[in-house]
Structure formats: structure tokens, C-alpha cells
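WARN no homologs supplied; continuing
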Amino acid sequence: KASEAIGVDVSEHGLNYANSHHKKSNNRFLLADLQKSLPFDGGYFDALVSFETLEHVSNQENMIKEFHRIIKPDGLLIISTPDKDAFVGKNIPENVFHVRELNKKEFLGLLGKYFKVLEIYGQGKLVAMPLWKRVARAFVKILPRKFILGMANIIFPANVYNSLKRSTFTPITKIDIYKPNIDYTVLLAICQKQ
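OK structure emitted
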């Protein structure tokens, strides 16, 4: 229903996919690097959404600063990131695609330099994994990738594979800004430009 929506990605492949599968009359997709200046005038957007992006950017300060620049006064930033503290002591391997993960305090501190954080939400709870699931996950990891892809639906139907996940889906739940996050793997903040 927006008059205009713009998506950005650093991947040309991603942009090609978006343009071929999601193109509408009121949207467009542009090549942009969140670690550099963004190709928009100051105060261009009413709202900006950035889900599961921050942890993939090394210059996070510049990214948030640029978001602040391109959002109109009183405009909204809706942003999410995994909470690294949710994984501490849980024997979970590091995500090799994440450049820098933040905990709740660091996330709110970074956002607070440029925005007023109005609300924070959590989603996804880690589940204790019984021994049989840990063994099954280890087995999946040692199989050749080609074999897994070819046999995935036969050996590991979606419902079985999904049961091996480390976190469980939970609705987005409002949490206290000032208390530590002990439950949720992903944090989502609603921020307003001041």
C-alpha cells in the first residue's frame, strides 16, 4: 500500500531474483553497500526496515548513521539482529556469515546514538536438544552435501529436519528494554529518528 518501496542488496544475484519474482509498479531494487554511503537524499524515507542484516556488516556504526541520515524526522527504523548472549554456553557453533554479533546492551547502545528506541521485541527461543537430536545433527553434518541435497526429502523430510533446529518459532513478543534478554535468539527494535 506504500506509494514507493525500495529494496537494497549488495548482491547482484539477489537483486536479479527480487526483480524477477517481486517486481511491482511501486517498488524497485537497487545495488547498495550498507558499509558505504547510501544512494538516497537525506530524509528520503518515512520508514526503513532492516531484518537480520546488522550482523553481516563490519562497519555497523556507519550503517546506522546512514539510516539516520536517510530517514525523515520522526521516521521509523525497524531493525533486528541475533542476540549473541542467547547463544553463550549453549555449545552452538559460530555463524561464519556473521561479521559481528551484538548482545542486547550493545544493540541498544548503537541504536541509541542515533535513534530513540521506542520498543524492543524478542523472537525464537533456544530449545534444549536431547541426545538423539545432537547425534542426528552430527550425522547430517558429516554426510557429503551433494548426498544430502539429493536425498534430503527421502531421508530427512522437512518435518524431521525442522525438528532438529536449535530454536523454536515463537511469536514476536514485547520485552523489557531495561532487563537482560534471557529467552530470545533474535531482537527486534522499533526506533524513531529524533
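The chain is about 30% helix and 30% strand.
OK
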